[in-house]
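Minutes, project huddle
Topic: does the predicted pose make sense with adenosine-5'-triphosphate bound?
PN asked that the exact inputs be recorded in the minutes so nobody has to dig through chat later. Recorded below.
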Amino acid sequence: MSNCGSCPSKGECNKDQQSCGIQNNPLNNIKKIIGVMSGKGGVGKSTVSALIARNLAKQGYKVGVLDADITGPSIPRLLGVKDAKAMGAPNNCIYPVQSADGIKVMSLNLLLEDENQPVIWRGAMISNTVKQFYTDVIWGELDYLLIDMPPGTGDVALTVMQSIPINGIVMVSVPQDMVSMIVAKAVNMVKKLDIEIIGLVENMSYIVCPDCGKKIQIFNGNDTSKLLDDLQLNLLGTLPMNAGLGNVSVGVYKDGDEEVEGLFNPIVINLLNSLKEIEAKKTQA
Ligand SMILES: Nc1ncnc2c1ncn2[C@@H]1O[C@H](COP(=O)(O)OP(=O)(O)OP(=O)(O)O)[C@@H](O)[C@H]1O
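Predicted holo structure (tokens), as shared on screen:
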């Protein structure tokens, strides 16, 4: 039976407690869980997850990032903890690693001797590991736990959405026809599972000419507005394609980087407002 007392969805869900498959660790008190998803690979989910986490942490929130991309984990590099190792805790639990900006991080790479070792596991094992990253990691007190989802709408995405009490999903897309089609699949999956979509971040929307400052659209550009209209999604913000964002994983982005902060401040404001609206709607229902 689920432990509703420590559930981030307490008071906002209409699940039957006896049949709910969600297990919450009583040592954890996580207020909100946000999934970052796309369906399509390589569109910037991990970069967006890491930079939302850093922005929230900078505002003083207690933040964690669960890297659910077991076979292609990039969160440790993006949060500057690639050489750290997660340590065991009593009762078969695990302590997350803490980044320099105070973000708690759990990723399979933090358990491997060598980050270059592949994880050659079947789907069920990968899904169980993700579940354990929620149930067995001592996250403690968190205002926000971000879950960086793997690409696709398969096993892991399904496990995350069915066994972790997600309050909402941030979709990441790129304004290109083929990406939009695959993101639409992910959006429809989330809707089928009755999970709220907080909004969409459009990544790689444009490049800025270093000489004249003109914004140049590299893809044909109209697909996101069609996606937003067709699926009734909220646009949280757009991000350029640039070296600053591309080099987060090599530690180039430091606190106080005005360009990155200027890009993420409005996205995070929109995200928090949208999350509040979702909560208000649920408590009224
Ligand atoms: N706005 C951007 N400008 C430049 N490079 C970017 C931008 N966003 C992401 N990248 C780069 O694109 C690559 C893919 O990004 P990222 O790993 O965040 O995507 P992902 O969707 O999480 O990928 P995966 O499907 O493997 O999980 C990375 O090398 C990243 O540094």
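Observations noted during the meeting:
- The first strand starts at residue 29 and ends at 37.
- The longest helix spans residues 258-284.
No decisions taken; revisit at the next huddle.
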